[in-house]
Every structure is written in C-alpha cells, then in structure tokens.
C-alpha cells in the first residue's frame, strides 16, 4: 500500500535538495538547509524538501548537512561542538537555522525527506517527527541508523510508520539482485523508495532492470542530484518517480 507521504501530490516527485539556495542580489547568500531556502522552495511550488539533521552541543536536532562548519562558514569545528545559539547566529544572515521541530511547525504543508547524519540524532529526530509521520520520510546511508530512527518515531507514539528509503547496503543489494534477475522483494519489503545516483563512479546504478524490480514491489525510484534540464527530462522519460535537485524551480518548469 502506498504510504500517505506520496498521496495527493504530483508525480513524478520533485525534491528540493536542501531547499532552494540563492547567491543573487546584493545581500548575503541564502545557504542550504535554512528557513529562507525552504521558503524559496515552497514559493517555487516544491511539495517535497530533502534535508539533513545533526545534533548540536546542546542536544538540539538541527538541519545541517556537513559534519563541520568548514565548507559553509570557514569554521573547522564540528556541529556537535557548537552551541545552538551560536550556530543560529552564524546562520542568521544566510537564511536562518531551523531545528526539525521548527521546520515541521513553520512549513505544515511541506513533506520532508530527512537524512539522519549522526547516531546522536537518531532518537531525538524520531521524537520530533512522531506526530508528523504522514509527511516525513526518514533515511540514512547507514541501514542501522535508518532503522533505529524509524523505530524511535514509533516508540515516541507515532500512529503511522514514517516513510523510509534505502541505505547504502540495500541499494547495493537491489542493484545486484536486479542484475541477476532475482527478486529483491525481501530487501524492499519495508522500503517506500530507493533514492540513488544515476551512476556511482564507473558503475551505473540506475538500470531498466532495477527500475522494473522496484516498481513490481511498489517502491519508488528517486534519482539524485540532477540539475541539468535535459537530464531531468531524460530520467523522467525513463520512468523514475522523483528527482532530487538543487534547482527545484527549473525541475518544476521542466516537468510542466
């Protein structure tokens, strides 16, 4: 049965990768995973936002991709070494810090794809999404972390299991089994989506066999991170169910 996460939304799905950032204009750039980036994605018409969570030194689950602040802020400290208030001050000129709880409250109509980036975030993110599991998908490259986050949401009183997509190990298994023309049903039975790159180095991950196998088991295929309009149209013509993109506005126009 299709998870409510996918109900009453456009298909194919367009997932705004960390929101919709901007470097245009005279003001400071809008950084990824900020309130302004999510507001821009919402204004562009994106129904889905892909984001990432980590825990600060105060134990707050915040939206941040990298382990450290180096790439965005030129600060070598890890996110879990920084107090929440200080992180909020750093992000304030660039779109504004959000916790998972704030994100769900501020954007009540948006569906979120949350990548759990650290073990410390597993239990608190589960508690934060428990009342919103109809519009949340939890994932992680770590299969154990993904499963524990889903279990944490249920343990926190969720009436519905959050949607979930494959970790790295499941991706590899489905790719191999489909290439051997063996059923990946056992791997896919608790998965709502496979979120994969089109290629990983020299290896083609997305294949017609994988696509057919996933669809036979009612599992959606979302491909990341696709920013070229021609590539978007080509993948949609192949039958993928969703695109994760830095340019949700461009993708929505291509889909239209």
From TrEMBL:
<dbReference type="GO" id="GO:0006629">
    <property type="term" value="P:lipid metabolic process"/>
</dbReference>
<feature type="domain" description="GP-PDE">
    <location>
        <begin position="12"/>
        <end position="255"/>
    </location>
</feature>
<dbReference type="GO" id="GO:0008889">
    <property type="term" value="F:glycerophosphodiester phosphodiesterase activity"/>
</dbReference>
<keyword id="KW-0378">Hydrolase</keyword>
<dbReference type="Pfam" id="PF03009">
    <property type="entry name" value="GDPD"/>
</dbReference>
<protein>
    <submittedName>
        <fullName>Glycerophosphoryl diester phosphodiesterase</fullName>
        <ecNumber>3.1.4.46</ecNumber>
    </submittedName>
</protein>
<dbReference type="InterPro" id="IPR017946">
    <property type="entry name" value="PLC-like_Pdiesterase_TIM-brl"/>
</dbReference>
<dbReference type="InterPro" id="IPR030395">
    <property type="entry name" value="GP_PDE_dom"/>
</dbReference>
């Amino acid at each position: 049965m299709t998870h409510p996460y996918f109900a009453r939304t456009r298909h194919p799905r367009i997932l705004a990768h960390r929101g919709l950032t901007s470097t245009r204009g005279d003001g400071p750039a809008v950084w990824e995973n900020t309130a302004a980036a999510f507001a821009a994605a919402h204004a562009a018409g994106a129904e889905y936002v892909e984001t990432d969570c980590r825990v600060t030194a105060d134990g707050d689950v915040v939206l941040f991709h990298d382990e450290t602040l180096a790439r965005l802020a030129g600060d070598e400290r890890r996110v879990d070494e920084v107090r929440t208030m200080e992180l909020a001050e750093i992000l304030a000129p660039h779109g504004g810090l959000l916790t998972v709880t704030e994100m769900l409250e501020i954007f009540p109509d948006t569906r979120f794809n949350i990548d759990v980036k650290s073990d410390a975030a597993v239990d608190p993110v589960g508690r934060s999404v428990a009342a919103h599991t109809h519009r949340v998908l939890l994932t992680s490259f770590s299969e154990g972390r993904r499963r524990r986050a889903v279990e944490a949401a249920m343990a926190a009183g969720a009436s519905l299991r959050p949607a979930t997509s494959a970790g790295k190990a499941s991706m590899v298994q489905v790719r191999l089994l489909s290439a051997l023309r063996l059923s990946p049903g056992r791997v896919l039975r608790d998965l709502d989506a496979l979120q994969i790159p089109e290629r990983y180095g020299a290896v083609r991950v997305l294949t017609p066999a994988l696509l057919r196998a996933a669809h036979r088991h009612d599992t959606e295929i979302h491909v990341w991170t696709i920013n070229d309009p021609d590539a978007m149209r080509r993948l949609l013509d192949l039958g993928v169910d969703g695109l994760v993109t830095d340019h949700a506005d461009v993708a929505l126009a291509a889909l239209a």
